[in-house]
Design brief:
By secondary structure, the chain is α+β, with helices and mostly antiparallel strands. It has two domains: 337 residues, no CATH class; 109 residues, Immunoglobulin-like, CATH 2.60.40. Helices cover 44% and strands 19% of the residues. It is built from 18 helices and 16 strands. Strands 8, 9, 10, 12 and 14 form a five-stranded antiparallel sheet that branches. It has a four-stranded antiparallel sheet with strand order 13-11-15-16, with no helix packed on it. A hairpin with a 4-residue loop joins strand 3 and strand 4. The longest helix has 26 residues. The N terminus is likely disordered.
Length: 476
């Protein structure tokens, strides 16, 4: 009896199947798309890469046009000579870029992601290389599904060799913005890079190779934060890539040129090309999705199908949610672009940009920092005068030799004994020791402690001096 009960109990124990909580990664083989938007996308690829690869080789005033010389703490951008003290301009530029992102996203969705993001650009380049070696989508899938052959090994080796070449050259160019690229080029032939140059050339190259060659859509879907918070910048009047379900559904296969109304079908022939060309593998017909990078490949693919079926274009197009729901024309949708959100973003962007340009254009060509000499705060000399020593850092923000004159005010009778004039070489930063004395008659009338003074540093051809404040110490 006991054994029977035990046996019956064993039979009713449930079996729990264990499974993975994560979907296995499915490799995406995007099909190439041709059309108006594809041409625009490739135009942006050429423009961005021409600027990135070309700027380090451009000469300006007998130097590299764009160079961030970290060792010398000087940054050259064409005619501009910037110092670490000009960091405020970088902060302002980043704020302007952020508002530009908000402004254009509110108008046209993920325009940055679709046309100019480095991940998009390099993925496009790497996919082009891949298709040259592996063929189009079908041939590539078939080859990957088959066994290893000599032809497969040669194609794979050629593809990865080309990828590594592009990636390494990208890393080399990136470092060329911080080390003069011609110096870096000569070092490349002897492999005599410094430690940090080796690190960044290989790190940036490896990141390009991995992100554009292997991770691709995973960077956009899981690593990039923009996809997660973009919805905060969208509304129902934002132009996004949209499938017109009212016109396209119900979907179905039919002969070319067939009248969909007579077949009780929509314009969509359910060919799946919009999914095959998508670099993130989504179906735009399922509605708005955060994985959509706005590359517009589905628009080109669908327009090509509509042309072959002799149907009007625009089944997948740039449109607003309100426009699709209400059946508005493109003119009616464009009329709602200047809504309050866009106006505010645009006004702030214009104000910031104008302030940035004016401030950068009117910045002084001389920067001055005053540091008290800590070894000798104050001393009394033989004639009873009180002397303070200061160290002034003079930074020439122009590319010609300048003469400087240093004056002092704030304490009656104060004068500069040594260091009142100085010569600065083009874009030079140097330290100058300045001795300031107050005569005995004035010093006796001053209370002990610190008294405010001002250094007035004037360039040879400037009427307005650069003013820096400090203090003069009267000892007990």
């Amino acid at each position: 009896m006991d054994s029977a009960v035990t046996s019956s109990k064993k039979k009713i124990i449930p079996i729990v199947a264990e499974g993975s909580l994560y979907e296995k990664h499915r490799k995406i083989y995007p099909r190439s798309a041709r059309g108006w938007f594809a041409r625009w996308r490739w135009t942006m690829v050429f423009i961005t890469q021409l600027a990135f690869y070309g700027l380090p080789w451009l000469h300006w005033n007998d130097r590299q046009a764009v160079l961030f010389d970290l060792a010398a703490r000087r940054f050259f951008v064409f005619d501009l000579v910037l110092y670490p003290q000009d960091f405020i301009y970088l902060s302002a530029l980043l704020i302007i870029c952020a508002y530009s992102l908000f402004f254009f996203t509110a108008i046209g969705g993920r325009l940055w992601c679709g046309y100019a993001c480095p991940q998009t650009v390099y993925t496009e380049i790497f996919l082009w290389v891949e298709r040259r070696f592996e063929g189009e989508r079908g041939a590539h899938q078939k080859r990957d599904a088959g066994g290893w052959t000599v032809d497969k090994v040669i194609r794979k080796a050629g593809k990865h060799g080309a990828w590594l070449t592009i990636a390494w050259w990208t890393g080399f160019t990136f470092v060329g913005y911080f080390t003069p690229i011609q110096t870096l080029w000569s070092e490349a032939f002897t492999l005599s890079f410094g430690p940090w140059e080796w690190f960044w050339v290989n790190f940036y190259g490896f990141a390009t190779y991995g992100n554009a060659g292997f991770m691709r859509e995973q960077v956009c879907k899981y690593m990039c934060p923009y996809a997660r918070f973009q919805s905060a910048m969208y509304d129902r009047d934002t132009m996004t890539i949209t499938y017109d379900a009212a016109r396209g559904d119900p979907r179905g296969v039919r002969a070319r040129g067939a009248d969909p109304k007579s077949l009780n079908l929509g314009a969509c022939i359910d060919c799946g090309l919009c999914v095959q060309v998508c670099p993130t593998g989504i179906d735009i017909r399922d509605g708005s999705q955060y994985e959509c990078t706005g590359c517009t490949a589905c628009i080109d693919a669908c327009n090509g199908v509509m042309d072959k079926m002799h149907y009007p274009r625009g089944l997948v197009r740039y449109a607003t949610l309100n426009g699709v729901a209400q059946g508005w024309s493109r003119r009616e949708m464009f009329a709602r672009i200047l809504r309050p959100r866009v106006v505010v973003y645009g006004a702030v962007l214009i104000a910031l940009s104008a302030t940035f340009v004016v401030s950068l254009a009117s910045r002084p060509l001389l920067r001055v920092d005053v540091v008290r000499d800590r070894s000798v705060l104050a001393r009394t000399v033989d004639d009873g005068s009180i002397e303070n020593l200061y160290r002034l850092q003079l930074m020439n923000a122009s590319e010609r030799q300048r003469e400087t004159r240093i004056a002092i005010d704030g304490v009656e009778g104060a004068r500069i004994v040594d260091g009142s004039t100085s010569t600065l070489a083009p874009s030079q930063a140097r330290w100058v020791t300045v001795s300031v004395r107050v005569p005995a008659t004035t010093a006796n009338a001053l209370s002990t402690g610190a008294h405010p003074i001002r250094f007035l540093v004037t360039l040879d051809d400037a009427s307005r001096p650069v003013i820096e404040r400090s203090s003069f110490i009267v000892p007990r």
